[in-house]
Amino acid sequence: MPTTLAVHAGAHDHESPLVEVHIPADQINAAAPGTSGVASHGPNDAAAVLLHDTDAPGGPGGIVVAQYDATDSVLRFVLSGRVVAGTTRHLDILPHAPDATTPPWPVEVTTKLDRAVVRVGGQPFTSYHVLGGRRPYLWPVIGPAGASVVRGQGSADHPHHTGLGLAYGGHSEDGSVNIWSDWDEPPYGPGGRMIHRGFRRVVSGPVYGEVAHDLTWVDTFGNPFAEELRTLRFWWASEGARFIDTTVQIAWIRDRGRGPLVVALRLPSEMDIPHHGAMTNDVGVPVPPAPGTSRVYRTAWVDGSGPSGDPPYPPPAGPPEVLVDQPGARPFREGPGDGPWQGIAVFDHPTNSGFPHEAGKYAGSMGQNGPGTGQITLSFYPPEAAPNGPFGFSWRTYVHRGDALDGKVAGQASSFRNAPTVSVTT
């Protein structure tokens, strides 16, 4: 008799959710290709498992491709389509190898000396830069329109704020180490750094890719004051729904201030928020805020959407590279882009201490710093019960087509907070 997974939607609707269930390896009847979840740098190191969706088609013939991670005995898969509140979907684990089935969005993670490059379904998605900056960051993050939904170095406004990443300390709040401003000189410097010490785990697979690495945080003088393990999981539910799930585990931290851990991203100028694009949230706080009101608010999610611009520059084919002051270089864009709308949202989770967290705390977070500027921040503070660690936080980044309404951002955020549950029968 096959092992059956019953996926329970619970009280909330879900749109192509990533489902996970702990299940012993002896109940996984077939796993191929690869070494069943053993971490390596190869493109096929995660086990593929076939499921049969007996209630609704999840692929050709109702076949769903799942990915099994033997290191934590977890099976994960995207359950395609709408999973309506109060319903249950049943999937049987098939007893044969998945040689003839191609997953819709396989993820390949390739490590370089200074970054991890992520491709999904053969398409570029993002690069995770771990060297060369004061802290690791993701850039570009390619949206459905083909352009990045975060900006890189060298933009006109706050050029030191790069991509999507985790900062610390704000502007040295309460005397905290500053790993936020990226300045060497006063008034916002000198700052500390988050030092990449090596990849602990790099996984490619038929459903998701994963990177885990160790970091040591150092202060202005190079002295360690925190140790962190960070894990990023990359997956797509569809061409228009792309996800990055991030978990941060702080082993210990010793700082004189109680600085925030700041999830921060700078939106590209092409979105032109708030003149053309829009920044929205689940509590309805207007962006920019009404005159005389605080720009700081607590929210479970924040989204920035707007028109897209040109795709990122391709890597140079050979020397010499085109510099900005040479003929033929693309000029810096001012004002809105002329491409299709796309957006990026950050989701908080109720398991995080202090949920929901503060957004809008830092300059640019409300789209007020001139035309075409915008920043999304969520500020996590160490829990009062364990201010020196250990503690952890997790969040989801959602890259989508259209604006927040088109991308069903509110529903996706609700699905993240109230994930489907799974029961197993054999």
What does the model show?
Strand 16 and strand 17 (241-253) form a beta hairpin. It contains one helix and 26 strands. Mean pLDDT is 86; it is low at 30-44 and 366-372. The protein has one helix at residues 409-417, and strands at 4-8, 14-15, 18-22, 47-53, 63-69, 74-78, 82-83, 88-93, 107-111, 115-120, 123-129, 137-141, 164-168, 193-203, 209-218, 224-238, 241-253, 261-266, 278-281, 297-299, 301-307, 341-347, 357-359, 375-380, 391-401, 421-425. The strands form four sheets. A nine-stranded antiparallel sheet has the order 9-10-11-12-13-18-24-23-20, with no helix packed on it. It has an eight-stranded antiparallel sheet with strand order 14-15-16-17-25-22-21-19, with helices on one face. Helices cover 2% and strands 39% of the residues. The longest helix has 9 residues, at 409-417. The relative contact order is 0.16. It is mostly beta strands and 426 residues long.
Summary keywords:
26 strands, globular, 426 residues
How are the SSEs placed, and which strands pair?
Layout: E1 4-8, E2 14-15, E3 18-22, E4 47-53, E5 63-69, E6 74-78, E7 82-83, E8 88-93, E9 107-111, E10 115-120, E11 123-129, E12 137-141, E13 164-168, E14 193-203, E15 209-218, E16 224-238, E17 241-253, E18 261-266, E19 278-281, E20 297-299, E21 301-307, E22 341-347, E23 357-359, E24 375-380, E25 391-401, H1 409-417, E26 421-425
